[in-house]
Amino acid sequence: MFTSTGSSGLYKAPVSKCLLLVPSALSLLLALVLPHCQRFFVYDLQAVKDDFQIWRLISGRIICLDLKDTFCSSLLIYNFRIFERRYGSRKFASFLLGSWVLSVVGDFILVEAVRYSFGVTMARNLPSGFLAPVFALFVPFYCSIPRVQVAHILGPLSITNKTLIYILGLQLFTSGSYIWIVAISGLASGICYNSRTLQVHRVLYVPSWMAKFCAWTLEPLFSSSEPTSEARVGMGATVDIQRQQRMELLDRQLMLSQFAQVRRQRQQQGGMINWDRLFPPLRQRRNVNYQDGRQAEQPASPPLEVPEEQVARLMEMGFSRGDALEALRASNNDLNVATHFLLQH
């Protein structure tokens, strides 16, 4: 698993599982058993434009004819299943549908723009497959998944939990001559659909009746059992609580990364760590949770009162009083979180 985003496997991700199994199986079937049928799945924009072969927009933009593209896109879909778990299968499918439709328009616009601007006639065929929605998923991946530092290489360069995903996306981006058209239109469609200003999600979405029909017919085929070898996170609670717990888990990973970075700076420069600057998101989130969702503007509160008993327990472990005080204030007097910070770093 590329990122720490909950349970491994395809639990609670039937749409992702369907996209992994069905197109991949058809790609292998066309490549190994039925190569003479590949012509029906070629993404031929010229045929769509001149001969009105609209069916090519469907067949050519679902099945990959290049096995390397199939492999890379499958790995990315497996990683991006986290959005289906976070937002639900219907919203995830709506994003894929919306980005798929918008990217069709983007492909035509890009090809015509290159032809009119530079006088260059593009190739008749573009790379086939479910590629544009995969590139579109990089938009919410960049915007909503926290960046957690894993290791440093060559001084300022660092490896994060998202580095391998970007490398895999770059590999897919450079796998063909004209795949950059599909990639750009996919990214543009992801930005448009993710934008709250354009309100595209109110127009392009999966209807509730279709979602219910697919849940009744297809979900039993592609559902996966819950992994038993992992600790359960929020199971048995409501969907909102499960999502909140997963977001808090990601917040803790981000806090650990920030703590490590600032602690190294402190060792080099000296001085106290400004915890209030580092960790406002967790405090704001917890305030919202414990006040039943009520958000109100309040004046700046005095420094959090830290129980001396908890400070003494941390000092017994060998930590200084200053570190113990700051760690407890940053974690809202959560002794377990504060101990985890100090032990890990």
From TrEMBL:
Keywords: Membrane, Transmembrane, Transmembrane helix. It is found in: Membrane. Residues 305-345 form the UBA domain. GO terms for cellular component: membrane. It holds the Pfam family UBA. Coiled coil: none annotated. The keyword Disulfide bond does not apply. It is a multi-pass membrane protein. One of its GO terms (molecular function) is serine-type endopeptidase activity. SMART domains: UBA. The chain crosses the membrane at residues 92-114, 126-143, 164-188. Restricts trafficking of FAF2 from the endoplasmic reticulum to lipid droplets. In association with LMBR1L and E3 ubiquitin-protein ligase AMFR, negatively regulates the canonical Wnt signaling pathway in the lymphocytes by promoting the ubiquitin-mediated degradation of CTNNB1 and Wnt receptors FZD6 and LRP6. This is Ubiquitin-associated domain-containing protein 2. It comes from Bos indicus x Bos taurus (Hybrid cattle).
